[in-house]
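Suppose you are handed a protein chain with no further information: no name, no annotation, nothing but its sequence. What can you learn? This example shows the usual starting point.
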Amino acid sequence: MTGILRPVTALLMATAIVMAGHGLLVMVVPLKAASYEFTSFAIGIMGSGYFAGLVAGCIFAPAIIARVGHIRAFSAFTACVTVIPLAHTLLADPVSWTMLRILQGLCCAGVWLVIESWLNTSSDSETRGRVLGAYTLVQLGLLTLGMQLVGLIDLAGTELFVLAAILYSLSALPIALTATIAPAPPKRNALRLTWLYRVSPAATLGAALTGFATGSFWILAPLYATANGLGSAGSAGFVAAALLAGAVTQWPIGSLSDRYGRRPMMAAASLVAMGASLVLGLAPAPGVGTIFAGAILFGAASFPVYTLAIAHANDLVPKRRAVVVSSGLLFVYSVGAASGPLVASFIVERLGFAALFTTISIACGLIIAVTMLRLTVRPRERARHHEDFVMVPRTTPAVFDLDPRTDEMAVTEIEPQSYTEPLQAPVPGVIAPDGRLPDEAHEQPSADDETHRTSALA
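A reasonable first move is to predict its three-dimensional structure. Written in structure tokens, the prediction is:
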């Protein structure tokens, strides 16, 4: 394992440092905004701005990397993102902070895109899965650690913003000093959302609704915790408990989905998340134990739903489509995450912070309704292939090139133009007689398809 990770050590070190700073800033901004008496709606708009910037960064950052290269682009993105925490100390109004959050999302997308595209070119088909696992572990671990830093220093001063800026700045050192040759710029995959919805309505709507629920949680959960008597450190622990629970349950829930199906597990996990949300939202005066138990149950059940949606959609398409499908679901998830804080904060402004989890429970209930409806319409999906469950971060489309479910030929040899080919107009939701999906009924069978048919007949 050490030999596999040695070529990407600098990238993992940069990831660790930048995620520590990011986790700290994720916690500091809403708590500090509340101390400045920003309204809940204003804080929700700020959170939506971050996710909107993240979407924009995934669209525009590849052009910047293509123009100046990975190392210069990473230096530029980290320089910009370092300015953001410091600018928060100089500007203390909701409009300025919203603009800063948009810029933060754009810059973070660029930072992660550089790291993930570089990780992909530094690994091969045999090592991509282990590299992705190490990258995900570093991300989650240091994000959680960064959140806990909020309890070390008094929130009243500006020291936490300065510390976040220091960590962002230091993340440039491993990349700037690496002797590894930078890779070619990442390619951009065209979005095909209509096609994606035809492939799997359950996965598409499930990703959007999960983004709505978890995006609302990330932005407003610290304020919910403080409104219920937890301090800064307690709020960080509340969010971290949900994050760690979601990380721990990814593999067990994924393994169950390998056995019992993706959609039934999406519905079951959403049911547990809805129950936990209702407890947090409807309990009149929840104690610390109830709050943390609800956070753990919510995180454990809700965070795996997005990766279940990716797994379900990827089961239904050829491997050469996997990156396009996963990238489209990330876009849909991000749109949901951008709208979630906006809607939830509007409701919280009028009904109080307990309404946050009531709103989240409605989103979870809609996931259950969608998946159960799809199970009624199409009880059993005919999978092109069935791969083991894989946990992937919600960062940029480049991370999906590391997904071991992705065929190497799809990553390295398929030109972007092939993703934008015109589609015929089949009847939505109908599978062709030979088992191919609607958008591919006109395609010639590939060797992959013939292998699948032969194994199915056997």
